[in-house]
Amino acid sequence: MGEKYNAMNVREKYRITEYCHHFLREYIHEGDCCIDATCGNGSDTEFLCRSVGKTGRVYGFDIQKDAVEKTRNRLEQAGCADQAVLACDGHENMADHVKEQVTAVMFNFGYLPGGDHSVATKPETSLKAVEEGLKLLKTGGVMSLCIYSGGDTGYEEKNTLLAYLKELDTKQWLVIVHSYYNRKNDPPLPVFVVRLF
After folding, report:
1. How far apart are CA 55 and CA 161, in angstroms?
2. Per-residue confidence (pLDDT) for residue 115, from 0 to 100
3. Percent of the chain with pLDDT over 70
């Protein structure tokens, strides 16, 4: 029983969202400004709010009112709603709301877990959002991208984003693509982009 419990804990630790949180913890500090480009159910927004502390700021975006409300409720219950600015807007418009450089930008592409699968991120707006996020990222900052493909979402968004990231200037950007290599059926892809200068 104990061994099974430990295995479950390890498996949970390496779930893509938790894995990204683990990676980003090295970069985010008290008082930082961060962006959750795809609020969804608010897990990443809460993580960012806790990471930046009471003196930090987190901007959260989602095109679905339901997702924004779920995120707002989650943050209120967690006691960290004060440092969050939530907008029911496409992530490609983040520069309309954020006027400062940020330490981290988080993306979870695809559709809202438990929501309507026909409402999902699209290659063209996701690419523009990544471009805008990179412009806002400060030197030493990091962007995380949880890329889901196959099934309802197909491969176009994944291929579009990876092709763009592959061509980023190596002097300015470090792009790290991880893989759940022995998982079948199109496992999610964790990607990190670090601004070198």
Report:
1. 33
2. 56
3. 88
